[in-house]
Design brief:
282 residues, ABC_transporter_ATP-bind, single chain, nucleotide-binding, Rossmann fold, 8 helices, alpha/beta, ABC_transporter-like_ATP-bd, 2 domains, six-stranded mixed β-sheet, ABC transporter ATP-binding protein, binds adenosine-5'-triphosphate, transport, four-stranded antiparallel β-sheet
Length: 282
């Protein structure tokens, strides 16, 4: 383990103001009937610079809505989203998102897709291509620069999406079920790749997943949201597993299993509530 790096991260987390802060956040949507649908209630969450936080919770509880609020796609109905201490208004300029769906444009080659973010920021083609080549190599796609997305496997397209997002060096990385469509081996490869890249940056990551094991293996903290409507933070667990981690191997660590049992106890109750609600509303 790189002790020096870990202690720098730790200091940064303790001393600095939160990178992301949700205070008293509520989010309502209007149903087509005109009724108010309360999705999130009184969410308090602070994420430090460089921290990796996963959010788990029953289906439909408001995980993606939380991510949308941090991305600035939606304003909160009540409460405040602050980014580095500033109230967020409109799109969050420090954030980049990787969704479950494909990010790449099908008519563009890998290098054109990966360099696009820099081109849109005004970098000339030569410079953008040079930087894109570096990121393509980092995500293990050297040699595929001229391929189109349809010529790649699902895992390779995910790598393109990561390179596309990371090339703009976002300070906040928002990931919504980013690896859930991948087979388990490719998924572990991508998760390890993500951790390796993240450890080289100081990005704060919010990772949404249905998979508690994935959440524990990757994160510094796992947040459990309660069943909706009006979901709130039910649990906030620190994951003190050593880094660097191998996501496939860390699952056999007894500390991992203990954490899994503890968090699952919390999460299971919410999943049961959500099943019961779904059955009642059938
Ligand atoms: N733009 C919107 N307008 C109306 N209702 C919405 C909107 N976005 C989300 N919702 C509702 O908010 C609730 C929470 O949705 P959200 O997608 O945030 O949950 P989730 O926890 O990410 O779900 P899943 O685990 O199934 O991906 C759902 O009932 C959904 O229908």
């Amino acid at each position: 383990m790189n002790k020096a790096k870990d202690s720098v991260r730790y200091e940064a987390k303790v001393i600095s103001q939160p990178m992301i802060e949700l205070s008293g956040v509520c989010k309502d949507f209007l149903k087509p009937s005109g009724e108010v649908h309360s999705v999130l209630r009184n969410i308090h969450l602070a994420v430090a610079k460089g921290e990796f936080v996963s959010i788990v919770g029953p289906t439909g509880c408001g995980k993606s809505t939380t991510l949308s609020l941090i991305a600035g796609f939606e304003p909160p109905t009540q409460g405040m989203v602050r980014i580095r201490g500033e109230t967020l208004q409109g799109i969050n300029p420090l954030a980049a998102c990787v969704f479950q769906t494909e990010n790449a444009f099908p008519w563009k080659t890998v290098i054109d897709n990966v360099s696009l973010g820099l081109r849109l920021r005004g970098k000339d083609k030569r410079e953008a291509y040079a930087e894109a080549s570096r990121w393509i190599e980092i995500v293990g796609l050297k040699g595929f620069e001229g391929h189109y997305p349809h010529q790649l496997s699902g895992g390779m397209r995910k790598r393109v999406a990561l390179a596309q997002t990371l090339i703009v060096q976002p300070e906040i990385l928002l990931m919504d079920e980013s690896f859930s469509a991948l087979d388990v081996h490719t998924r572990h490869l991508m998760e390890n790749e993500l951790l390796k890249i993240w450890e080289e940056t100081s990005a704060s990551v919010i990772f949404i997943t249905h998979d508690l094991e994935e959440a524990i293996a990757l994160s510094d903290r796992v947040i459990v949201l309660s069943a909706g409507p009006a979901a709130t933070v039910k649990g906030d667990y620190k994951i003190h597993l050593p880094r660097p981690r191998n996501v496939a191997e860390v699952r056999f660590d007894p500390a991992f299993m203990k954490l899994h049992e503890q968090i699952w106890n919390d999460l299971r109750d919410e999943v049961m509530i959500s099943y019961a609600d779904a059955a009642r509303n059938k």
